[in-house]
Specification:
It contains eleven helices and four strands. With 312 residues, it is mainly alpha-helical.
Length: 312
């Protein structure tokens, strides 16, 4: 029961409120007012978005409630293997100053959790947990589903904006139609900015009375876009999953590379194996299970990892 206390935090409650807000305005305001939930297209869009939102929430729960992994108290690194994997760094460099115990490669001490975490990526306040060895896949899948759901909502929104011309929508010009949609509704600039530029624009509101549709447009015009941040985060996760964890390991790799090249030696990060191999280490060898956050049977102990010399 102790792990469920992680759900009782302000950032996690904020995430639930945000997801609920986006889901409500997308399904019960936008889809309902434009095509109707009882229509075939409305039911299909609501079903797809509900499915994506459910997968996102499920992955979020898995990421929050899964222990990222801790270093066993009995862990003692092999001297020769440790020296070789860290390009000559001594075993003493793997001694945690805070815990006063040895830590395996890619493990780091979390100041928030006050312990060493296996393959620590970072401590995420939005999941109230460290992202590490055992929940990194859940984090990856969470960002993926959130990105797909956000893009689906935005694309659906844009589609119905342009096909709604037949519903008596007041537009300015084809070019300004696109620009007004891109900027005002996708959150790069607020609607007030376009008014200040002289581009008076009523956001795709039909001539018939549609109070909730107008409410939706006002809300969307005032809130930042949701697909862009998730897309950027997902892109970064993919890039650095291909190489190494993108917070601690990334800057540690930069420092080690600088020191190695300064001494006149060639440097290759020890964990920089092939892209496909690194991805399968996180998601698993079976592609059919890549998007299942609970499919982690491929994970081992998290105390050792393939190095570049193994793939050469």
């Amino acid at each position: 029961m102790a792990k469920f206390k992680k759900l009782l935090s302000i950032p996690i409650l904020a995430v639930f409120l945000l997801v609920g807000f986006v889901y409500y305005i997308t399904v019960f305001i936008f889809i309902e007012d434009w095509v109707g939930l009882r229509s075939s297209s409305g039911s299909l869009n609501a079903l797809i978005f509900t499915f994506l939102a459910s997968l996102c929430v499920f992955s979020f729960f898995v990421c929050v409630l899964t222990d990222p992994g801790h270093v066993p108290a009995s862990y003692v690194p092999d001297v020769e293997e440790s020296d070789e994997q860290t390009n000559g760094n001594s075993v003493q460099s793997k001694l945690c100053d805070k815990c006063s115990t040895y830590k395996p490669p890619r493990a780091h001490h979390c100041r928030v959790c006050k312990r060493c975490v296996l393959r620590m990526d970072h401590h995420c306040m939005w999941v109230n947990n460290c992202v590490g060895y055992w929940n990194y896949k859940a984090f990856f899948v969470l960002v993926f589903y959130a990105t797909i759901a956000s893009i689906y909502s935005t694309v659906s929104h844009g589609y119905f904006v342009f096909v709604s011309k037949g519903l008596g929508v007041q537009w300015i010009s084809p070019a300004q139609d696109f620009l007004c949609y891109l900027w005002s509704n996708d959150g790069f600039l607020e609607l007030d900015t376009w008014y200040s530029l002289g581009l008076a624009y009523l956001p795709h509101q039909p001539q018939h009375d549609n109070h909730r549709g107008g409410l939706y447009n006002k809300l969307i015009a005032k809130f930042p876009t949701f697909d862009m941040p998730f897309s950027v985060v997902f892109f970064l996760v993919i890039i650095y999953t291909d190489k190494k964890p993108f917070f601690y390991q990334y800057y540690e790799g930069i420092r080690t590379a600088w020191l190695t090249r300064k001494s006149g030696q060639n440097y290759r990060h020890p964990f920089n194996v092939s892209a496909y191999r690194n991805i399968t280490l996180v998601l698993g060898p079976n592609m059919l299970k890549w998007l299942c956050p609970t499919s982690v049977s491929h994970l081992k102990g998290g105390l050792s990892f393939p190095v570049s010399r193994d793939s050469s």
